[in-house]
Design goal:
There is one protein chain. A seven-stranded mixed beta sheet has the order 1-7-6-5-4-2-3, with helices on both faces. The chain has a four-stranded antiparallel beta sheet with strand order 8-9-11-10. The protein has three domains: 197 residues, Aspartate Aminotransferase, domain 2, CATH 3.40.640.10; 120 residues, Aspartate Aminotransferase, domain 1, CATH 3.90.1150; 174 residues, Ribosomal Protein S5, domain 2 (2-Layer Sandwich). The chain is globular. The N and C termini lie far apart (71 Å). The chain is α/β, with parallel strands linked by helices. α13 links the parallel β14 and β15. The protein contains 16 helices and 21 strands.
Length: 589
């Protein structure tokens, strides 16, 4: 491979002088400066953000500094754009000549590569993925010519969800003289590593990433292209001035400050993906679910088009990929919340039931699944049933979820909770035995619970345990909202070689009655004196009345019984009653 960037840059791009503003040439203190250069309004309207009346600076220094630290790259290796789409367009505009050059894509893949090539009047060579949705390096290099300017590799791939082997991409980088653009929009959901560490080794590598997926900022449109300083400088030369708005830039910076929520959100998505895959496998018309390293699943069905239309008519939008090469009958399903996923499963099952009723006598779901590759020999129920006349799927009750982040000089705690979950837990406080106890709350209370805590454990676990209790209590209180329709009271008496009784009232009065003692000064690395403090802090944060009583011989079992009883009591207290009434003579809590 003899890569030379200068041979790729279009002549007009190489010779052009980029737009320059007085603002981009100034580097002084904004607070002490009068800006009369850009014909802006001198003051923002009342109620709008400070400085929103000003154009943003041409470069986004603060965001780049944060990304450079997080991604372990240099600031001059980062291009920021209006979504990854802008970076894709600029790569083609800068390095490929209209009506002369072309790109290589690997269908089925993300559609914007071809769309951008068409907009830039470039040719498109398609080298289909193998039956396992992998790149054939030999076929790819055979298709490449002197006019092939770039290859676009989506990894994890959209819509198939699989990642391309690292060795495959390295082979392309080493054998191809043009640009290899690796789109890592979904890499956050993959256990595999990004190719960012290879930037210095391979000057023809460009890595695309985005804030739209795992960072939860799809509406903000902030994308990144990581590449050599030379490539980034060319992209910056051509991009529009002020291409990233001030609000969007600020949102991205704020998202990076919520790194714990980002990590917990990914963990929740991966758990939900695993559960969704298990549930989808049990449904009629499903023949295969492809392995995924992304936040979606590609599901092969025997009736993709009609199933897609049925779901759409019922208010559930998935992506029909049936016309993509190798994806006949396939629907791409994004992993939603547990409630959204369950509604999908229920609606899909309803369609399967209608399908079975509509089949010729003697054919069951096995026959349907056996006929995946061909055309079903029965009429789709959608030809006989007006979907608009079907009853709407019952909407799920309002989700009782909360995310609370609490930072002090000693700790930084983030808690995500779903009171109507499945018992999924992802907990890391740095205190092993304490993590074990917190898992009991999730498992036995049937809550989805994510806790990520960092604290001054070099001193002792006191602050970490106390602040986790406070943050967990605040999360419960936030998730409960106005408490309308909950049972309010909970009580439990589990028995083992130890016994524990926990009573709870979410009526708003703060009180802890504690009747438990321990022989040992520690369980694991946790001082036994901190357990009463944990429950007191929780009671104060969630405005609850809690009574705890325990007895037994083994301190470990006694403490575990307390947390299990606590979990059961919480589950009873937060359970919704059928009539949606609140057990209170006051009428409100």
């Amino acid at each position: 491979m003899s890569f030379n960037l200068n041979t790729l840059i279009r002549d007009n791009i190489r010779e052009m002088k980029p737009y320059s503003s007085a603002r981009s040439e100034y580097s002084g203190n904004d607070e002490d400066t009068i800006f009369l250069d850009a014909n802006e309004q001198p003051e923002p309207f009342e109620g709008l953000p400070k400085n929103i009346n000003r154009y943003p600076k041409n470069n986004q220094e603060r965001l780049k500094k944060s990304l450079a630290v997080l991604k372990e790259v240099r600031e001059n290796q980062i291009f920021l754009g209006n979504g990854s789409d802008e970076a894709i367009d600029l790569i083609l505009r800068c390095f490929a000549r209209p009506m002369l050059d072309h790109i290589i894509i690997f269908p089925p893949t993300f559609g914007m590569y071809a769309v951008s090539a068409q907009m830039n009047d470039l040719g498109i060579k398609k080298v289909p993925l193998t039956s396992n949705f992998l790149i054939d390096v030999k076929a790819t290099m055979a298709a490449a010519t002197n006019n092939t300017r770039a290859m676009f590799v989506c990894s994890p791939n959209n819509p198939t969800g699989n990642i391309q082997p690292r060795d495959t991409i390295i082979q392309l980088l080493e054998q191809f003289d043009g640009l290899v653009v690796v789109d890592e929009a979904y890499m956050d959901f993959s256990p595999n590593n990004s190719l960012l560490p290879e930037l210095d080794q391979y000057p023809n590598l460009i890595v695309l990433q985005t804030f739209s997926k795992a960072w939860g900022l799809a509406g903000a449109r902030v994308g990144m292209a990581y590449a050599s300083e030379e490539i980034v400088s060319v992209l910056n030369k051509v991009r529009f001035p002020y291409n990233l708005s001030m609000p969007n830039n600020s949102l991205a910076i704020s998202a990076l400050d919520k790194y714990a929520q980002y990590k917990l959100s990914i963990a929740e998505t991966l758990e939900n993906r695993k559960l969704l895959e298990v549930q989808l496998k049990t449904l009629p018309l499903v023949s295969h679910i492809y392995p995924s390293d992304a936040n979606f699943l590609l599901v092969k069905t025997s009736d993709g088009d009609n199933l897609y239309n049925f779901l759409k008519a019922k208010g559930i939008i998935v992506r029909n990929r049936s016309k993509e090469p190798g994806c006949e009958g396939c629907l791409r399903v994004t992993v939603g919340t547990s409630e959204e996923n369950q509604r999908l499963i229920d609606t899909w099952s309803l369609y399967g039931s209608l399908k079975e009723v509509d089949q010729p006598s003697g054919e069951g779901s096995d026959a349907v699944n056996a006929n995946i590759s061909g055309t079903p020999d029965y009429e789709s129920p959608s030809t006989d049933i007006d979907l608009k006349e079907l009853p709407a799927t019952q909407s799920t009750k309002a989700a009782r979820r909360a995310v609370v982040q609490r930072s002090t000089s000693e700790t930084d705690i983030t808690v995500r909770i779903n009171l109507d979950g499945t018992g999924r837990a992802n907990i890391s406080t740095g205190v092993g035995f304490f993590d074990h106890m917190l898992h009991q709350i999730a498992r036995h209370g049937i809550f989805d619970l994510d806790i990520l805590a960092t604290g001054d454990l070099n001193v002792d676990p006191h602050h970490t345990i106390e602040d986790t209790a406070i943050t967990l209590g605040k999360a419960f209180r936030k998730a409960l909202g106005d408490k309308a329709g909950i049972e309010r009271y909970g009580f439990s008496l589990p028995m083992d070689d130890a016994s524990a009784e926990v009573l709870i009232d979410f009526g708003g009065r703060i009180f802890l009655k504690w009747k438990a003692s321990f022989e040992a000064p520690f369980t694991g690395e946790v001082p036994t004196t901190l357990y009463e403090h944990f429950f007191r802090s929780f009671a104060e944060a969630t405005a609850a009345n809690i009574h705890v009583k325990a007895k037994g011989q083994d301190d470990h079992h006694k403490i575990e019984a307390i947390f299990k009883a606590f979990a059961k009591a919480l589950r009873m207290a937060v359970t919704r009653n059928e009539k949606g009434i609140l057990p209170s003579t006051k009428g409100s809590l």
